[in-house]
Write a sequence for this structure.
């Protein structure tokens, strides 16, 4: 089973690629531009842009992890074009290529954009629209909705219960990367939506 990671040059995507490649798990990196680190590792790379015709990047791939995002430094236009429209077009391409599992890195707040912070409501709406499109696609999906991302090393402990205290709604990027990889390994995670923060459970206990 070969997995395509979309957003593979990003912080979570890069960790997924490096971990899977090191473990000998077939993985393909979709990147917008050449990347000397991933090239030096011998990772299979497909250059493509979510704002252009990228569907051929999925050819020959059995699973997809979508962890791309336009980031906080760009405007709402890019959030629409990348986080929402890029994700929706990836779902269409995944159907075209009969992908067996689609793991979406969504976000806390996507479950109910009206009740989140108004400053990022457009972002939460985009994430929700993409998630809803995946849910209705007929594809086997796993949707992860992490809290605010931290750069510390993985803790190995997660929880799928989003704390009411917003300050506690955090998880390391490496734990999210590990969760994505875990989701590929077990059918327990198929057709599930998981809020995700750091906590006291192992991935296999939390994502069951
Ligand atoms: N920040 C948070 O607290 C938070 C919380 C929950 C969820 N999330 C979500 O978690 C995900 C991953 O986070 P992260 O920290 O790993 O993000 P990141 O480091 O910003 O990586 C995002 C990746 O998306 C790629 N990308 C952007 N536009 C693209 C396009 N048009 N075509 C192809 N790729 C494109 C970027 O490519 P380039 O390298 O070429 O720029 C980058 O590699 C994002 O979807 C984010 O919305 C974030």
């Amino acid at each position: 089973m070969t997995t395509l990671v979309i957003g593979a040059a990003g912080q979570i995507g890069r960790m997924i690629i490096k971990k899977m490649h090191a473990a000998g798990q077939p993985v393909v990196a979709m990147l917008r531009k050449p990347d000397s680190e991933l090239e030096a590792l011998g990772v299979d790379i497909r250059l493509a842009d979510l704002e252009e015709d990228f569907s051929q990047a999925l050819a020959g791939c059995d699973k997809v992890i979508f962890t791309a995002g336009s980031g906080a430094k760009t405007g709402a236009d890019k959030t629409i074009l990348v986080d929402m429209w890029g994700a929706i077009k990836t779902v269409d391409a995944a159907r075209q290529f009969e992908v067996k599992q689609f793991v979406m890195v969504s976000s806390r707040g996507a479950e109910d954009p009206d009740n989140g912070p108004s400053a990022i409501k457009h972002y939460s709406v985009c994430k929700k629209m993409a998630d809803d499109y995946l849910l209705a696609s007929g594809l086997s999906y796993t949707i992860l909705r992490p809290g605010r991302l931290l750069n510390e090393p993985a803790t190995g402990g997660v929880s799928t219960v989003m704390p009411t205290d917003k300050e506690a709604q955090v998880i390391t990027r490496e734990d999210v990367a590990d969760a994505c990889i875990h989701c590929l390994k077990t059918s327990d995670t198929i057709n599930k939506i998981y809020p995700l923060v750091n906590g006291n459970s192992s991935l296999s206990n939390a994502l069951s």
Remarks:
- The chain has six helices and ten strands.
